[in-house]
Design brief:
The chain is α/β, with parallel strands linked by helices and 797 residues long. Among the domains are: 1-113 and 604-613 and 623-641, no CATH class; 644-763, Four Helix Bundle (Hemerythrin (Met), subunit A) (Up-down Bundle), CATH 1.20.120. Helix content is 60%, strand content 12%. It contains 25 helices and 16 strands. Strands 6-10-11-3-12-13 form a six-stranded mixed β-sheet, with helices on both faces. Strands 2-1-4-5 form a four-stranded antiparallel β-sheet, with helices on one face. Strands 7-8-9 form a three-stranded antiparallel β-sheet. A hairpin with a 2-residue loop joins β1 and β2 (16-22). α4 (121-128) crosses α18 (541-559).
Amino acid sequence: MSIKIKKINIHAFRGILDLELELEGKSLLLRGENGTGKSSIVEAIEFFFTGKVSHLEGVQGLSLRRHAPHVNFAPDDINVSITFDPGNIFLTRTFTSAPSSSAPLEDYFKITQKGTFILRRSQILEFIRSQPAERFRAIGSIVGIQSLDNVELEMMRLRDELEGKVASKEKEINRLISDLSNLIGKEITEIKDVLPALNETLQKANLPLIMSLEEVDKHAQEMMRAVRKAESIERIAVLNEILKITNIPLISQEIVTELDDINEKVKYLLQDRARVELSIAGLLETGRKFIEEEKMNVCPLCEQEINRERLLIRIDDRLRILQALSDKASEIRKISVGVIDNLKGISNKLSSAISKIELFDELSKEKEMLLDKFRILNVFIDKVTSAKDFKNEIPIQEFIQQKEETNNIRLSISTKCNSLLSTIGLSEDEKKVLEVIRLIEQARSKVKDISNVSSELKAYKKRYELAEKIYSTFSETKKAKIQEVYNTIQEDMQNFYSMLHPNEPHKNIELVVALGRRASTEMRIESFGRKGEDPRALTSEGHLDSLGLCVFLAFVKKFNEGCPLIVLDDVVTTIDAGHRENICKLLFEKFGEKQLIITTHDGIWYEQLRASQRAYGVEGNFKNFVIIGWNVDTGPIVRPYKARWERIQEKTAAGDKSGAGNEARQYLEWILETICEALQIPVPFKSSGRYEVRELLMPAKKRVDSLIKENTFKAEISKTFQNLDSTMIMGNLLSHNNILVENVSIEEVKGFCDSVRKLHNIFLCPECGHFVSYYRDLKIIRCSNPKCKKPLEVKTD
């Protein structure tokens, strides 16, 4: 025997002060006008199982703490309790404590804690009308693939970082080779070209040739000794190194362009919610792992007591926001690596220059200025790193100003170093030797840098190739498995949709994992012979809503097997009456063993569901309630449903002539509308859709007279119409403010009410009580209940 809800008790939650719903393990059908607390009941059930109210999550200005409690109560007053059978298991959730499920309820709670047993119209929009990535997440919440998404996202982040490193190192090598070419004055494509080019320069200067690049430092020292005394060699060498660093701008315009490119992309993603979520991504990941593994019930940061289960669910929800942004963030992560590496390279240059110029008192002012720029640059690097993680924008203008000031300092240093060299008293020959020394030392330094960067590039390439292989294998396997899941439910989706829309030109519904994207789901349908169409292209709003219902129910059937609870909260707003009957058929035939909770504000849909209960013989499996009123002090006032005829009888028994007359006239209007629809009776069009008795009665009588040929049935209907005609004046008098009302007896009122009731009964199947319908192709009037064992059948023209 499956677990069912026996009783629901709600206190101080949303628009509910105190409410007890006795379900006794039965399904619930609840009707109420908008604003009378229907959704508050659904939200209370959601809160009980998940600890949250989904539509309060992630909306600016809304919060569970502030908006879940009744306006006259505090969060600590909230109490939602549910009693389950078998076992009479009583569980409670408050704002600070969660229900502790026992063994019989383990599977039940495992599913309900995800919240995937509830369908609202907003979720239908996510299934059908949303973008592929949003649809993937909406469906993924039912399938339960969030943990796989987290793993995949981390793999992708690592892959992106490594790809960025590879691109950065390749770019750096190209830059170093270009610098070498400019330095030597000859195009260099490979390192082996450097030595011949340097020797050519040495030969022109009548200086000894270099046998290998490894001898550059020794060769330079020997040339220096040959032209200068030992006491000035060290000073010249340091000045030479400073000039080597400052011979070109320390910060290029290229890096400003790259930063600007990154910043534009960051701005696109830096929305309020995204910035908040992404700024604490690391904390969320670490905190979730710590709280889960350590089984903590106290926050490690603020040392306050926490609801561990609810907090973990909340963290998971917030991490899903990061996944939603990860595809867009991927490019930023890649290109940021190289820019940050370049900035760190500039920082190293500044540090090297500072360490060298401190040997010269003449450069003390420049040293202090460079120290200031060094500190500012390192702070700026932190800002770029933060921007890469979507915590802030990059202050580009601030960097441009620092670039100009730093390069001006560089010019001042270069000018003073050349001046210091000139004071040493170098001859022209010595200057030429010094220039050659500077050239070969710079060339040697570039070659060394190229060699180091090439080694790093080789290592990063290996790591990137491995990361890409792992990521792509995982991603493709995940997509294949998810597609397998989609394939298993597509037959149910199609079957359910065909039940709702028989003989209509829409078929072959598909859910397809989009290739080339990390987490996207496309929905396709064949409409009017055109295959692979987006459902939004060729189907009506009602068709889209019913398709969303079919998607939900197909997933529920597949993934909620251990949970019999299904909640449908006002989901048929745009679906027409004919297709609503088919929804009843789908629910009762395919999900009859489930405990359904169905809310609606639509009286017709409510009556259709009640009629289907009778048709399928499951009236005893349902609790039919109506909300008759709501105010802030009482909350929703819920009463068991009473059929209109029962209400009329109560009012006539109480002597309420006006009340009974009004009810009977409304009852008659509904009967005539139903007769006109069932027998396909043409009536004058009214844009409001509301018709009075006089506008329906005559067309109905004429249609019945011309359509029905079977004498006994026709005579019975004619007599019923005659009785109604003779008492109609009572209905007219009683439904308006008329001074003659007091002259009408209660017996006359009963006569009118009985005539209306007899008209209803004549069009009901005597076997099952279902309303009859006209089947034009078969030329019969027949009970519309497909389950009826002895259906009423009357031949027509």
